[in-house]
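Project channel, design review

CF: Before we commit to the Marchantia polymorpha subsp. ruderalis constructs, I'd like one complete example in the thread so the newer folks can see what an input/output pair looks like. Taking Sacsin/Nov domain-containing protein.
RD: sounds good, go ahead.
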Amino acid sequence: MASSQKAFIETIRKEKFSIGADRPNPLAESLHQAIKCLSAELYQKDIHFISELIQNAEDNSYAAGVEPQLDMLLTADDITGVGAPATLILCNNERGFEERHIAALCSIGQSTKKGQRNEGYIGEKGIGFKSVFLVTSTPYIISNGFRIRFSDSGVESNGSMAEIGYIVPEWVERPTDETLRPYSHQFGCRPSTVIVLPLKPDKISSVKAELKSFSAETILFLRRITCIRIRHMDGELVTMRRSDSSRKKVEKPAADMFWTQLSLVRSPGNTKESCDYFVWEQRFPVTSSVDQRLEVTSWALTLAFPAQQRIACSSHGDIFAFLPSQVRSGLPFVINADFLLVSSRETLRYDSPWNKGILGCVATAFCAAMECLLRESASASGTGNSRTIAVHQVYKFVPVDKCPIPQLEEVRSSIVSRLQRMEIVLAAANVGSNFVKGSFFHPSKCRQISSTLREILVKASLDETISKCVSRSSWVAVDALVQSNHKEQLRQLQVPQLSDQELLEILDDSNWLLRISEQLYLEVLDIVSSLTDRVGLDRTRYLTIVKYEGERGAVGLFSLRQITEENIIMYMSPPDCGDYLSPWMLKFNPYIKYRFMPQQLVKAMKEARNKAGVAWLKDVAKVQEIDVKAFAKGLVDRSNSTPPMPHEKEYILLVWEFIYSSIQAGVLNKASVPPPSGSRGFAIVDESGLVKRNYTREDYNYDLRKSMVLLPASCSEWPLLLSDRAWPSDPRSRIRMSEEYINVCLAYSENRSRDLVVLKTFFSDTFGARDLPYLPLVDEPFPGLEDLSSAQSLLLFRWLENHLGSFDSCNKFWSSFMTTAWVHTDEHGLQLPKNCLMPHVDLLRLLDRSEVPYVSVSFYGDVNPFSRVLCKLGVLKEPESACTAVFKQIRRLIKECSAGLRSVDRSLVEKYYHILNGFCWKPTTSQFRKMKIYIPAGGVASDGPASWRSPEDCILVDKNQLFKGVLPSLGEIYSSKLLLFFEKTLGVPRNVHFSRYYDLWIRWYEDGMHYSVGNCAKLWEKIATCWKMCDATVKEKFKVKAMILTATGKELQYTTPAAAFIPDDLTRRKLFMVHTNTPAFVWYPAGSSAYEAELNDVYTFLGVRRLSECIKTDVEMDPGKLCICKLTKDPMFVTSGLLVAILGFISRTKYGLSSRGRQAVLQPLLETVEKEIFYTFPISYTIRSDVSSATTTVEQQLLGFWDQSVLYRVQDRELLADATVRREMQTQVLETMCSKILPDSPSIACSLVNFLKTLVECRFDEAAVEHELQRKNLKLYNEDFEFLRDGPNASLRPQSEGFRSLILM
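CF: and here is what came back for Sacsin/Nov domain-containing protein:
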């Protein structure tokens, strides 16, 4: 068979192109150039060749039962052997090429599909295949036994020249079937036709990009091909497939509709994208014929509506001429028709009558498709049909955005105009309406309503009665989902918003407002609030919309106009108050016109999230939020209304009955009884039944012109004292409360006496009503004092005692008591208060009743409870008279005792002191200087005879018994009550002044007395601990006279400070104490460790020297013995650990050494060597006394020392086996070393020695040094550590890395 195909090719070459003829074709060159120019002009972009190949595949013929598909594979293999860097392979499962198809490829404009548009063919030019020459020079076709290739240059595979390119076929043997099989098998099929395109090097990237961006919508409108697969060079396989549902015929208008699904699967990964399209196909008669389409009699217009997001990676537009063009219309749907395109297929010929005719049909087709799709979706809602679209989503296809192309904008405008005249808007069937669900209406009949109103109407429509009330309107509401998701589409369709007038008509219907729940009612008020803001109160005040609770719980509605014109007061009370207030509302109805809101509504208001409706009730409807307290305040305010209201007396009494009962019921706090607004004050009904106003309870604290309110007489004490007295003189300044207050408030009392006490307290707290003894004072003289009975007098005393604080502000009132002789006495009749004395029992023992006028006990009884007020009035106003008498008695005793005329009775003296204390005696300056304190003879307070001492020569308590015989301790003589009198009145110090301790020590020394060690310890503890508080004068006085104690053995002796030493060097102290009794060392009492530092400060100030600073050391060196030594191989001292320890110690900031100073201290040790000696050397320590210039010397054997970079230590191992000797050697070495490296800092050197002693036994092991430095919180500085690490002696360089943790950077 292949031989016949090959023969056919040879025939074409010879007969048509004169290949192999004797003379060449004279038109060959011209034809070649014409084809080249035509192809380049028609297809200006490389990517068009793919569209042309798809178009050819679409027009191919396929066997029955075969799914037409096209596969494309891009590989880097050169399967044709022409040296191509990449190859594009196309496989198609069509029937295969026939001779007529080959002949058409070898011609120009001789397409086999011309004139067959009505049969579904989309190719027409006859040069479509020539577009492949834009990316390849030699395309190959292997189909149905044909194996040919074409060349754009005319050069054939054997090198010969065909003179004409593009259309001259050449038979080829490769690629063979075996070569192609691995590639075609990648798609799992064996194609009938394979096109192989060896790509030009400069076209590979553009082909790659086109294949990557290939749109799945390319196959959307193809009639035959339903699957395209692309294998990319990176191995990714992309499968695009279309799946159509069965078509459905539409009679009006005549059209086909069906659903199709495009899917795109990428592998590996198996990621899938898909999109369902509603497809509408409708034919229209051709109205504008053109030469290219003379055989076409009707236009087939197809619209595709994507139900989901269109599949990504589309680089094409949304206008198709079976295959996608580059036109992006901006319309939310896809249009396909037999458009005439420009030669490059990029865009439409907008000036073509043919295209204008097709575009003129789009609006008609769209509206028909839209209407059909809406009803289809509405009927399919809830059926579970997967290939459908929610009805509200259909409106997304209404074009709202202007098209960038004028001709397409005309299409969009025509669509919108048509839709505005159609019943196309989905209405909400559950918004108070009575039509069938899924009904559509004309846009002008529909209304867009707020979500709040919609929710209200939806909920209201659940009640059939409410639904009938609401559905009387002439409009319908737009479906909620349509309105919320497609606002711009509704605007295009000119669906209006609900007008304010229409809203008013809905709201002005009390029938359904009374039937809805309280929550819905509040939402209605939210709408009313916003409506009022928009249209003003004048238009909403007639709405009957404010709920109230009437008699027997019936709910009604008021309009704002009614509330205003009829002066209706609207209240809303908390749920816990509503039940309580309801019965009281009935009692107050005759006096006040008000209404409460229903309790269920109040509860809903508290729980409401949106508070706009609640605010409208409060701000516009003037509904007052009220509880029992606020209700009571409103009642009180109205009781002071001007002019007075009818039956005001009964109203006022009822108000206070309500307030008192509310307090007793626990619904009103007594402390929160509401004061009246403004400064009007409470209105009070007096005992004559008249109403008194302008009373404010707080006024009586400062304004004496206001009235005094008295409790009702039947429950008060004031009638006993004030009933017959014209006080205050102006009767208008006092109000006596009506007895009816008690009658109404205690009408239902079961225990009247008990409740009367509570009621009195209530009147007192509320009105400021008072009874004696709590009545306020008025600055007027008090009449009839001489006629007071004893009971009246005692009541008066109680009254006055409560007002002692107003003594300076009510001069007239108080003066009337002080200038009138009205006080009853026992033997002196009525007296002025200032001439009377209180009958004090102690005073009565001293002063007889006949001598002074005592307040009468027989008339008044016990008056001691009223001593304060009587004292204020003048009684005991001058207690100095009694105290002066006692003081004179004491002075007399002092004189008689001093003169030896009489002995003193101690109990009598104590009695005198008690009298003075009882009368709170305040001595004058003269009396204070003369006052003495009696000290009995003997006892623990004093060793001497009885005496009288000045207060400054006494102390209250001498705990340590140090001042016995010096300062008497009153605590040993008198009671604690009198001790307070001595301290506060006479100024006896509670504690001994610290200066007295220093005086006491000097006195002890000067008296030559020897006191016990315990007493000395107590006294020196006081001296030391008080030292910092002493001023310089006391210290200098002490320094001049003071001696100190020194310890000699177990005995103490007085020593001059200059002759004593502070033993700060315990080793030398022991040496001196062992060999001699001198020098004298200061004494440290037992337990003095707590204040040893202070004690040393005292010793130092007095002139005591430190032992370490006064010792002179002398060593007798024998150079001959020093020569006999050897260098030790096992150093005990000179190690790296010693150097680190010294550096860590002297790095303390308190020593103030810089880094150079520290390194200078260490420098002598860096070159030190350690040697062992075989002899000891005598060393003497001498100390000189500053007092006698005498010296004391002790000797010791020198076991080791440091001198001039050599450290000598004794070698005798037997001698060093003794721990004491070894420690002495170590101490001597360290002392000489530290004194030499720190010659100017002996105190630092001494402290350094003590520190190094703790490390010498371990030979300054680095680990031990590190541990000790950490324990004492001693740090190293980096520069010091580096100084050691870089030292000249390698054996002295630190080795432990642990030291770095101590470095302070």
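RD: helpful, thanks. The longest helix spans residues 353-380.
CF: The chain is about 40% helix and 15% strand.
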